[in-house]
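User: Structure tokens for this complex, please. No commentary.
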Amino acid sequence: MFQTRTILRCQRQLSRAYATAVPPHALVFLEHRQGVIDSGSLSALTAAEQLGGQVSALITGGEDHVRDLVLKAKKLKGLTSVLHSSSPQYVNPLPETLSPLLESLLSKSSSFTHVVSATSSLAKSVLPRVAAKLDVPAVSEVTSLSHDTSSNSTTFTRPIYAGNAIATVRAPASIPVKFFTVRSTAFSPAQLQEGSEAEVVAVNPVQVNEPVTEHIKTTIAKSDRPDLGVATRVVSGGRALKNAETFEATLYPLADALGAAVGASRAAVDAGYADNSLQVGQTGKVVAPELYMALGISGAIQHLAGMKDSKLIVAINKDPDAPIFQVADVGLVADLFEVVPELVKKLKT
Amino acid sequence: MRPSPARLLNILVPVKRAVDYAVKIRVNPQKTGIDTNVKHSMNPFDEIAVEEAVRLRERLKTHVKSIKAITIGPPKSLDTLRTALAMGADAAVHVQHGEEGSAGPEPLSVAKTFKAWMEKQKEGNKIDMVILGKQAIDDDLGVTGQMLAGLLGWSQATFASKVEVDVEKKQALVTREIDGGSEELRCSLPVVITTDLRLNEPRYASLPNIMKAKKKPVETISPADLGLDYTPQLELLKVEEPPKRVGGGKVGSVDELVEKLKEAGITAV
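Assistant:
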């Protein structure tokens, strides 16, 4: 069985070598929440555009949302076509129900050479599942890329070891469809462009009879503040905030004064001071805002992996030897319970 | 009348030996990878996977028939399997591959390995549940579980923060971490689950259990036994240090801090 597979792969490689160069055609999995396009997906679109070929977006969901979204999406800069598919099964999308649709879109006759998405929890669940079915790898959290049309190979860079090393990998021509997810902080989101009008293509949904997995409910943590993943300013708290009450009482006024999103270290989340969805780090969200304020955060490797690409890092910590000071542009050694209220007051004057 | 025989659950827990999470890694001078002559331990997410399997048995008692750990790697990966056994796994499978420090197989090959091994299991020992870490902290890819579920056509629940199993109904109720909140799923068995950090707090293996683990069975096989070849599809061109960030020094007071912020154009909104 394996032997036949190798032979097939070799043939593919050979035929590609003699054929004229295949222009790239990316399929971007465009995600939305309740009809609002995710900012991460817009970054994925920018990354897809950098491949230098056609870019198609795929929108899935319930009928109402998809109809509105298509109208918005077709005006996005760089898009050549918008594929959409609606089904009650896509309202609460599951990998088990979405992957058959992707597989049918990527079947042998398709012109897609790349499948691109944000590094979202949904895309991370779906894309590798589809890639495995097509017998190809999936490259995660890409921070830069370049495509060489003559060799039909794409080169990616991505952080490994919690961002402590950067790997450069090449997906050669032998990989017919190259799957990758994009680290959204590394690519600016695609904008709407006046006058651009992508072609709209309806795709029949692929109904899954008796899916093996059933969605029961989704709970989204509510907040009036900007979304952590896309905020230009982030105020983050660590274990030194003592408890959930002092976390709120100390951090929220500062975040509100700056119009910032609130983040937390893993220690603060594990101790129950803040919700899981606020965690910044290798295992949480990766952010790269204009301003990142780390309050009472020591700066463990796993936390730094999630924020060290921020433009300006400010750290306030009692411990002058805390590793966070090695990356902070501005550090203040002080008791945060004393200085944060003072800071809020002085910022407002 | 005799009661109908209870359904029995067989759990497979893939584990990976990785550079210890606390180690500050160094890129090697050849830029081909990192210096691997450092402390290794079980990938933290896999520890959570082993712990969850053991806790499932503690809750479901005899409904769990077996917990098997599997790993792919050089001879030293056996240590990782022994850790899993000491935590409570019954038996282990070591797919021996590569030298110390060499790159492991790609996630797709890893998933194919687990699938091939599972397919070889006899009736009665068929795996019903695979619990994996959501990602390995070395390559940070986070795709193996999903690939395995795809290859098998099974239900999948990634980034699980809570798992409840109803053995009679052959179902698992899983709460998973998603962007901005959480989601509950009902998965039919067989299922692939990947663990989030919040799923549980892994136990330390006690000395008696470490001693007992030495007597537990470990089956050693090679990728060729499963008909697999680990030739990578992707080419690793180089590994580099990330750009260094230099700290900008400290300020002495809140006033100076506010001044610095203003210089950077940051004021209250």
